[in-house]
Amino acid sequence: MDFLAHIYLLRRRGLLILFTALIISLLGTFFLTGTFTQDDKDDKSWQGTVFISLGTDQNNLESSTTLDNVTAADQFTETVQGWFKNPNLINRINENFDQGISFNARRQEKQNLVITYSFNSVENTLNDQITEHIKTELQNDIEEYNANTNSAFEIALFQTNVEQVFPSETKIILIIVMAAFAIGLFIAYAYEYIMGIVSFPWQISGLLRKRFFAKFVLKKSELRNQNKAYITSLLNQTSATRNQIIAMNINSADLENLAKSIEKSVIIHFPDQIDELDQKATLIVLAKIGSTTVANLEKIKATIKERFILVMTY
């Protein structure tokens, strides 16, 4: 991937991209903000939390010590954590409600469990029903487990909490802005594609079926120093007494500075000066990303065939 092609697209089509991104961001933010405001009036999202501590009923245990009971309860906590992956338990809780509620249980130090779940409701009163069914179904399963294993586990502590979950407006706006920028970038590329302007190096080399002899950045401020030496060295590598540089859709300001940098070469404006081509000279096709057109590349290919050196500039 040629990152320079993307960078220079931002430079030459920056206003188009920013304008598109701004309009889409404003419309998206206005629409989604209004949507979330209306949803908050009708239905709200809630996050419920249940904190459970498990222990053992020592009155029903004769020979075990306190340490044994703590160790057993600690191990039993992992068992109960696994129960919340049991579809039977989840279904027994959910059959009392008109929405599917998913549960997540995680162990929190020794005999403690933290169970989290989400639900939608106008008010949080539904949470009381949910937690009551969690406690009831859990107690039933613990009693059944005790009966089958001759144990005496019990719920020692059961506490609940619920809070409303608000959509993160900052994240939503950030996503909208990023999407708007991506759409602006797409529109900029689409504009160049529709107008027949090359946006990537591979378009030039693919159309002309030539590898680049060189690539460089055509900066006005550097033409008389860094680029001058670079371009001169390129021309020296051609071992030719005469060079004609065929400028493909390069603006006058860039060409004026380029001419000052390479005094011994003749610059041909294509297609305006096509009649001045010297077939005996070394022809250097200079194509510029974001300026050269596909139509002119096809014309130059038909005019000079394959007898040329391909140089690209950003």
Characterize this entry briefly.
Helices cover 50% and strands 22% of the residues. With 314 residues, the protein is α/β, with parallel strands linked by helices.
Structural description of this entry:
The protein is of the alpha/beta class and 314 residues long. The chain folds into two domains: 1-194, EIF_2_alpha (Alpha-Beta Plaits, 2-Layer Sandwich), CATH 3.30.70.1130; 199-313, Rossmann fold (3-Layer(aba) Sandwich), CATH 3.40.50. The protein has helices spanning 3-12, 14-42, 66-83, 87-94, 126-149, 169-194, 201-208, 226-237, 252-261, 294-304, and strands at 44-56, 103-107, 112-121, 153-165, 214-216, 243-248, 265-270, 282-288, 309-313. Residues 220-226 have low confidence and may be disordered.
- Mind summarizing the main beta sheet? 5 strands, parallel
N- and C-termini, Cα separation: 15 Å
Give the integer mean of the pLDDT values: 79
Strand content: 15-25%
Task: Show unreliable segments.
Answer: 220-226
Classified by CATH, the class of the largest domain is Alpha Beta
What is the CA-based Rg, rounded?
37 Å
Quick tags:
314 residues; alpha/beta; Alpha-Beta Plaits; Rossmann fold; 2 domains; 5-stranded parallel beta sheet; 4-stranded antiparallel beta sheet; 10 helices
